[in-house]
Amino acid sequence: MLKYKIDVIQALKNIGYSTYKIRKEKIFTEAQLQQLRENKLLTQEALNKVCVLLNCQPGDILEYIPDETPGSPRETE
Fold it and tell me: H-helix or E-strand containing 64?
């Protein structure tokens, strides 16, 4: 499972991109902003925009968490 390491909206605010500015300049749609608020993954195209704006790599904002496998210690407790 992939999840965000950082609060992307807050990181954008820190560099001057308020949600108002993002909407006004049509950087992201309202649906994409809502996905970020709910920690849902963006499309690759939208993720590319985040990386350009934050001047970072996807690995700087996303992390992979392995799914629990059947029979793992947590599963059998």
Answer: strand 62-64
